[in-house]
Every structure is written in structure tokens, then in C-alpha cells.
Design a protein that fits this description.
By secondary structure, the chain is an alpha+beta fold. It has one domain. The protein is built from 2 helices and 4 strands. The radius of gyration is 13 Å and the shape is elongated.
């Protein structure tokens, strides 16, 4: 199944920038255009679950990297 993988660099407050990354994946069937994915991830990155998952690290939404995959999720 084709999908988008979105990488967002993260950093812990008080540390050097980009100390980690947080990944999101979205099915291409629901988000056919790259712009739709960027809009959705900007909404999702601030959800309670996303913040909890990155253990309080700050997401650098200006450095979002969107990658297209035309294969099966494993």
C-alpha cells in the first residue's frame, strides 16, 4: 500500500537542536497530495498522544521531511 512517511526532528529543551526524530505515516489513499499530508501532520504533531510519545521533546515543524513510499508497510 502506498503511503507517506513524515519525519519531524525533535529536541529536548536545553539541549542541542535535533536530538531525535518523530515519525508519522499516512495512507496515500486518504492523503493523495503532499500538501494534505503536511497540513495533517502539523495538526497531529501537537496532539496529546504525539507529545507524550516524544517524552516532552519539542518538534521542529519547520524541518518536516515528507517521503513517498509506493510499497507495503511492514
Amino acid at each position: 500500500m502506498a503511503h507517506w512517511a513524515v519525519e519531524i526532528p525533535t529536541r529536548k529543551p536545553g539541549e542541542q537542536p535535533r536530538t531525535g526524530v518523530q515519525w508519522f505515516t499516512y495512507p496515500a489513499s486518504a492523503f493523495p497530495c503532499r500538501g494534505d499530508v503536511v497540513k495533517k501532520v502539523r495538526e497531529d504533531v501537537d496532539t496529546e498522544a504525539a507529545v507524550r510519545h516524544r517524552a516532552g521533546a519539542v518538534a521542529d515543524v519547520d524541518a518536516i521531511r515528507v517521503i513517498w513510499h509506493d510499497d507495503v508497510l511492514s
